[in-house]
Design a protein that fits this description.
mainly beta, PH-domain like, 7 strands
């Protein structure tokens, strides 16, 4: 199983951060994540899981930042329903930050999905 760690900062106006894992699980793309306050770092949500059926995905791709320093995994859902509980979602789009050491795993994940 190829699990890719992700993070995104600046949730709720910079008051929280989110960290989690994304993986292919049968016919679903599974996101497990936890939201933590970025001020003190003590308050954490429970671990939540969101399963997005592959048929509900319009696009999954990797995007490199300036000079290749950063990498983002972009997930575009065809409808809002499967991603409605994911913090940071806008218009069915999730933009997940991928650390440099996790790039090969992210590339394998996108290759496994092979969306048309």
């Amino acid at each position: 199983m190829n699990a890719v760690p992700f993070q995104y900062d600046q949730l709720y106006g910079g008051l929280a951060d989110c960290q989690g894992l994304v993986r292919l699980d049968g016919k679903d793309l599974c996101l497990e994540f936890q939201v933590k306050d970025s001020i003190v770092g003590v308050l954490k949500s429970e671990v939540k899981q969101v399963r997005i059926p592959l048929r509900e995905l319009s696009e999954v791709r990797l995007e490199r930042g300036w000079f290749g320093w950063s990498m983002k995994l972009l997930i575009q859902a065809a409808t809002l329903t499967p991603v409605q509980d994911v913090p940071g979602m806008a218009q069915g789009r999730l933009i997940l930050g991928i650390a440099r050491r996790d790039r090969p795993a992210a590339e394998r994940l996108v290759a496994e999905l092979a969306l048309p």
